[in-house]
Specification:
single chain, 159 residues, mainly alpha, three-stranded antiparallel sheet, 8 helices, globular
Length: 159
Amino acid sequence: MSASSGTSRSADTPDGGHPGVSHAVLLDTLWASMVSLYADLTTAAAAHGLTYSQAKALNVLRQGPAPMRSLADTLRCDASNITGIIDRLEARGLVHREASATDRRVKNVNLSEEGAAVVVRVRDGMHATHQALGALSEDERATLDSLLSRLFQTEADQS
């Protein structure tokens, strides 16, 4: 992945950063990375009859059950959209809904065993991403993990 034309790596720091790489270059690199990751996930998901959004929802649910509203917020989509995504996943037996133990008005979505297996297969099928990450040394992967974790912390991560 390379920066697009019009941006360059230079000693100038117009945005107050350290010499070498401007924010514009970093934004371009992050953008190119996201586009590549999106394309790879979309291709891997399609191989299992899933849309990108369905694969993202399953991936979120790997971390544990989640209320419908929380899923909509995490996936940055409207509540009615998440309902359609979960309806289709539930019809395939990849997730199931149940009432919250603390608030019966809230529906939690749980990943089924088959859903968990599909998530593993989709992630394993992200060949371009695995190839790119495999080109990094163990130390470089640890550094990348640390940097991305710091950059994209949520408020919940910080508390």
